[in-house]
Structure formats: structure tokens, C-alpha cells
Amino acid sequence: MAKKILVVEDEQDIANIIVFNLQRAGFETLEAGDGPTGLRMALEESPDLILLDVMLPGMDGFEICKRVRETSQVPIIMLTAREEEADKIFGLELGADDYVTKPFSNRELIARIRANMRRFSAGEQDAPQHADSRGLEISTEAATVYKDGKPVDLSVREFEILSYLAHEPGRVVSREELMEKVWGFEYYGDLRAVDVAIRRLREKIEDEPAQPKYIITKRGLGYYFAKS
Ligand code: CA
């Protein structure tokens, strides 16, 4: 079944071009031209991914992103007009997975969408199941992480980072490598996105995020998954 993408964009010309290109790439599309409609559709229509403009009438993209994250881990790509907005996306820790800066090429946008939709599937790669003595279990088949037997609500990106690191406990992985493997080859984004994602991941799986026992920072080099 075609993946459904919600486009929240008030500039009709831009929305038309995006929708045209998404449909040509085989996606189903939903459109909202203002903030409140965007939020309602994000919550009610169960899109597979949301493209979210920042400046919108009624409610801005930052607020929508924050509200959607209260109940959903759907991938969200913010459409920003300026680099300052991109800074704010990470600074506010809204839970956005990615951003693209206008003007963007169709090729870039589709690549980002695919990278953000990519999930570990059962037959993919050779990532083993990893259960350890600390109560953390990573099920690659179910794409779910359990902490002390309870499922942890991770975004696709957070799950992929954890799986990637846990695949080789003890090996220090650079932010560049994480960006390439998890965000995708065609991503040329800001490495701070890695740090933000790690921070959110720690908040969800660590007992004390400030003193992590699973994902450890190797200063200046990257991150590794601690051996149990
Ligand atoms: Ca706008």
C-alpha cells in the first residue's frame, strides 16, 4: 500500500509542487493549509510521515510538532525558510526527525522522506536480537525495544540508532557514521541532529539520562553501546 504523507504548507504554490512530486514518486498525499487543520489531520488521519512548514496561520509548525509528539512517533520533517529556524528546531527539542531548508530540490526532499521512512524489517541486514542482563531487549523483528519487559515508545530514528550501536557493543561509532547509516547516504544534515536524537533516546531508555549505562559518550569520537 502506498505510504501516506501529510503536507502542512500554507503557500499554495509550494504545496502544489510538493504534492505533485510526492504523487509522482508513488506516495499518497494529504494537504493542510493552516496550523489547526494540520494538527487535526496529523492526529486523525494517521499519516506515515509529516512534512511540516514552520510559519503557518493559526498555529506554527513548532507547536504542531510538539503536540503531535505527545501521542505519536510518526516521522516529522520540518520545512524551514531559514537556517535560524533549523537551529530552533533542535534547540527546542520538539521531536522533529529532520528538516529541509527552502528552496529544496525534489530529489533532496524525496531522499529525506525515504531515509526517514526506512525501517528495520525482519529480513533486513543481520542485526541480531539483543537482550541483556540490564533488562533491555531490542527486537529487530518487531522493531520494538523493551525495558524491563515493557515496550518503550521510540521513534523510527531512535530505534535505528539504538539497534545500530547495540549491534556491536563497545565499538565507538562516530556521529558521521551514525548520520550516514541511520539518516541515509544522501543526507548532508547537521551533526547536532545526532546528539539531539541520542539525548532523547537516553531519556527513554536510561534510568538516569545524565549517567547513562547503555549509550556512552566517547568524548570527541562518538558514542558506543556499553557491554553488559
Ligand atoms: Ca509558511
The outline comes out as: globular
The count of DSSP E runs of length 2 or more, i.e. the number of strands, is 11
CATH-defined architecture of the largest domain: 3-Layer(aba) Sandwich
Largest sheet: 5 strands, parallel
Q: DSSP helix count?
A: 8
CATH superfamily label of the largest domain: Response regulator
The CATH topology of the largest domain is: Rossmann fold
Distance between the termini: 40 Å
Structural class: alpha/beta
Low-confidence stretches are: 119-129
| N-to-C order of helices and strands | EHEHEHEHEHEEEEHHHEE
Name of the CATH first level of the largest domain:
Alpha Beta
Mean pLDDT across all amino acids:
85
Topology:
Layout: E1 4-8, H1 12-24, E2 28-32, H2 35-44, E3 49-53, H3 61-69, E4 76-80, H4 83-91, E5 98-101, H5 106-117, E6 130-131, E7 136-139, E8 144-147, E9 150-152, H6 156-167, H7 175-183, H8 192-205, E10 215-218, E11 222-225
Helix pairs in contact: 2-3, 6-7, 6-8
Bound molecules: calcium ion.
Question: What are the main properties of this structure?
Answer:
8 helices, five-stranded parallel sheet, Arc Repressor Mutant, subunit A, single chain, 228 residues, Rossmann fold, alpha/beta, 39% helix
Describe the 3D structure.
The protein is an alpha/beta fold and 228 residues long. It folds into two domains: 4-117, 3-Layer(aba) Sandwich (Rossmann fold); 122-225, Arc Repressor Mutant, subunit A. It has helices at residues 12-24, 35-44, 61-69, 83-91, 106-117, 156-167, 175-183, 192-205; strands at residues 4-8, 28-32, 49-53, 76-80, 98-101, 130-131, 136-139, 144-147, 150-152, 215-218, 222-225. The strands form three sheets. The protein has a five-stranded parallel sheet, with helices on both faces. A four-stranded antiparallel sheet has the order 6-7-8-9, with helices on one face. The longest helix is centred in the last third of the chain and has 14 residues, at 192-205. The chain is globular, with a radius of gyration of 18 Å. The model is unreliable at 119-129 (pLDDT under 50). Bound molecules: calcium ion. Calcium ion is lined by residues 10-11, 53, 55-56.
